[in-house]
Amino acid sequence: STGRLGGLNNAESGGVADAKNLRVKLVLLGDSGVGKSCIVLRFVRGQFDPTSKVTIGASFLSQTIALQDSTTIKFEIWDTAGQERYAALAPLYYRGAAVAVIVYDITSPETFNKAQYWVKELKKHGSPDIVMALVGNKADLHEKREVPAQDGIEYAEKNGMFFIETSAKTADNINQLFEEIGKRLPRPSST
Ligand code: GDP
User: What superkingdom does the record give (predicted)?
Assistant: First the structure.
């Protein structure tokens, strides 16, 4: 192992604390309206409040989790806040990101297509060892489902990503999403 952590172990990003306490930059990508802010609010504050839109913009929300191997991971969560429209900003946004969470809405095939676009962008501009998660959100709306889970599974498998379906509304699989990411993060080598 080279001792690098998902492209994060550099001065720019703030990097890691030590082998047992990791700090990672996580970027959210996906069409507007798929539920990115709601996922973050559910994870960080434990609530679903579609009316209180967080204006993240220049800043980020953070949340620390503990894994079973007693590692703690502090996620610094960056929402695009609409900046996904400005392709020129993308490399700046991805820089130092150890994790990318690409979200679509299971009731909207267009958002699934857009998710695939973001995966390609990440492969171009992201760190080569970035951990990528593909998230089909709004799983509670199963009666309106238009993207079969199998499509997400297959796409994720082909692209070396972790796949999960979530509901920010019911909290289904929200904590699991971040725990699974935590398990997949490369650990810095102990020297
Ligand atoms: P963003 O633009 O990707 O950040 O999307 P938001 O987090 O603002 O969510 C857009 C809308 O989708 C919100 O007004 C919520 O009502 C709705 N929403 C988000 N997550 C869920 C979910 O898991 N289930 C359902 N039914 N609605 C959701």
Answer: Eukaryota
Taking a C-beta distance cutoff of 8 angstroms, is the pair 102, 132 a contact?
yes
Ligand 1 center–CA 106 separation, angstroms:
12
131-160: pLDDT as tens digits: 999 999 999 999 999 999 999 999 999 999
Virtual torsion, Cα 73, 33, 93, 129, nearest 10 deg: 50
Tens digit of each residue's pLDDT (9 = 90 or more) over 62-71: 899 999 888 9
Query: Mapping DSSP to helix (H, G, I), strand (E, B) and coil, where does residue 143 land?
Result: helix
Contact status, residue 94 vs residue 101, Cβ threshold 8 Å: no
Is 15 near ligand 1, meaning CB less than 6 Å away? no
Is 77 within 8 Å of 44 (Cβ atoms)? yes
ipTM computed for the complex:
0.99
Would the CB of 138 count as within 6 Å of ligand 1?
yes
Please tell me the distance between residue 1's alpha carbon and the centre of ligand 1 in angstroms: 39
Q: What CA–CA distance (Å, rounded) separates 2 from 49?
A: 42
Q: Is 140 in the pocket of ligand 1 (CB under 6 A)?
A: yes
